[in-house]
Amino acid sequence: MATSALGEKRSERKRKLILTSARTIFTREGFAHAGMEQVARDAGVSTATLYAHFPGKAELFRIVVEETLGDISARVVESTAVTGDAATRLTAFGKAYAEFYCSPTARATFRMVIAERRRFPQLADHFQSRSRLELGGTLLDLLKTLEASGEIAVERPSWAAGQFQGMIEHATLILGLVGGDDVMPVRPLDTIVAEAVETFLARYGVRERAA
User: Fold this and answer.
1) What contacts 98, CB < 8 A, 6 or more positions away?
2) What's the pLDDT at 97?
3) Cα Rg of the chain, angstroms
4) Domain positions in the chain
5) What is the four-CA torsion angle of 28, 31, 32, 38, rounded to 10 degrees?
6) Handedness of CA 160, 166, 171, 176 (dihedral sign)
7) Is 92 exposed, middle or buried (0-12, 13-18, 19+ CB in 10 A)?
8) I need a labelling partner for 30 at 20 to 30 A (CA). Which of 60, 87, 97, 198 fits?
């Protein structure tokens, strides 16, 4: 039993090494120029081990995209566990969302999926749908909760969610896609998020409008 568990841990460790190397090579070289032997060499495993985990380059690329999105979006989803008033909860979501889009890994993944859309149209559509569900859907649920508590009033929650996300995306994701994965906004993320929250609550906050 102990031997089996140890073997599983070693296998999982090798799998993670492969995915880390593959993510780096795919984002740097692109799908067409990335080689499986190159990935194996960078991960420090044999090609036999690589193919035992991933039967082909296309499958490896798909899993890299899937797991990268899951890893970097987890904090955004977790941010909704923060308690407090509308400003506090929107700020928590906004900061996690801004940090997500300022992550070089997130930007590189978006760029990679866009670049390979013709080769992997279904994966690109799935990536878009999952992003909408895990990011936009998370915010939508938060807005519905805030509306139920009487803190905000929105006629179209999906529109309101898109407006809030857009204020943050413009200063983070768009900047990165145009300027480069490592380019950070001039304004601090706290300022970007605070301004987005203030603008959003000025439009939809019940207390602010009543005042």
Assistant:
1) 168, 171, 172, 189, 192, 193
2) 93
3) 20
4) 1-55, 64-210
5) 70
6) positive
7) buried
8) 97
Q: What is the pLDDT of residue 208?
A: 44
Task: Give the list of residues 6+ apart from residue 187 with CB closer than 8 angstroms, or none.
Answer: 171
Close Cβ partners of 96 (under 8 Å, ≥ 6 residues apart) = 75, 76, 78, 79
Element (H, E) at 91: helix 86-102
Averaged over successive runs of 10 residues, the pLDDT of the chain (211 residues) comes to 67 92 91 93 94 94 90 87 95 94 87 90 87 87 94 93 93 83 90 97 76 44
CB 142 within 8 A of CB 156: no
pLDDT for position 207? 61
Please give the model's pTM, rounded to 2 decimal places: 0.82
Q: How many CA atoms lie within 13 A of 60 on its CB side?
A: 30
For residue 167, the tally of other CB atoms under 10 A from its CB is 19
What's at 119, amino acid-wise?
R
State residue 209's pLDDT score. Answer: 44
| Phi, psi dihedrals of residue 152, rounded to the nearest 5° | -135, 160
Q: Which CATH number fits domain 1-55: 1.10.357.10, 1.10.10.60, 3.30.420.40, 1.10.274.10?
A: 1.10.10.60
Note the residue count of the chain: 211
| CATH code that applies to domain 64-210 | 1.10.357.10
Q: Are 92 and 82 in contact (CB under 8 A)?
A: yes
Please report the beta strands in the chain, taking only residues with DSSP state E, as ranges in sequence order: none
